Amino acid sequence: MMITEGNVKIAKGDGVFYNPQMEINRDLLSIAIGVLGVKTFCDGHSATGIKAIRASAENNVESVDAVELSANACDTIRKNVALNGMTNINIVNEDVRFVLMRKNYEFVEIDPFGTPAPYFYALADSFSWRKSGYFSVTATDTAVLCGAEAKACRRMYGAVPFHKECVHEAGLRIL
Predict the structure, then answer these.
(1) What pTM does this model have?
(2) Confidence of residue 143 (pLDDT cuts 50, 70, 90)
(3) Which of 67, 80, 116, 133 could bridge across to 92 with cysteines, CB 3.0–4.6 Å?
(4) Which domain, by its residues, includes 100?
(5) Handedness of CA 46, 102, 93, 82 (dihedral sign)
(6) Which among 82, 20, 77 has a CA at the least distance from the CA of 45?
(7) In this structure, are 153 and 83 located in the same domain?
(8) Are 40 and 107 a contacting pair, CB within 8 Å?
(9) What are the angstrom distances between the C-alpha of 117 and each of 60, 61, 122, 168, 173?
(10) How many domains does the chain fold into?
């Protein structure tokens, strides 16, 4: 299945995650990369490679790393990079936390399955090398954080969520 998004085309790949509802998130990420003039970008949890490919195709990013733990997803990323004729994208089949320990980037995007909390230390540590930088974090477990799944929130975060008017702020604080 071919998908067109922004200035690029990708193939989804069997068993590789792609959420069409998050296109606006990827649009805003690409705009931010362009406005900030980012030269080095890390797409942690790259899946199809759409964010890495868009960063390269839509902006003047010199070096892009598409980091993905799944070998199957890395094969999909390779195909999508070739499909779009990108030459500045490096595909890294590894846990993004280990990559962040040895490389620093001007901008890091983290979009894990589940909570992004385990990645915050690696993010902060990687930016301490350059003394500055930008990161974007997507949390897909917002229902848990906002109280819809109170037992899961207690189990995963050790926190008790509540349904009040400030539910989203409370969820962010739990995160």
Answers:
(1) 0.88
(2) confident
(3) 67
(4) 2-13+22-140
(5) positive
(6) 77
(7) no
(8) yes
(9) 30, 27, 10, 16, 11
(10) 2
Is residue 111 within 8 Å of residue 45, measured between CB atoms?
A: yes
Strands (E), the chain: 2-5, 8-11, 40-44, 63-67, 89-92, 107-110, 134-137
pLDDT, tens digit, 9 for 90 and up, residues 43-98: 999 999 999 999 999 998 999 999 999 999 999 999 999 999 999 999 999 999 99
Q: What phi, psi does 40 have (nearest 5°)?
A: -130, 130
Q: Could you count the other beta carbons within 10 Å of the beta carbon of residue 25?
A: 15
| Single-letter amino acid, residue 30 | S
Q: Which two tokens stand for residue 169?
A: 């702020």
User: What pLDDT score was predicted for residue 59?
Assistant: 96
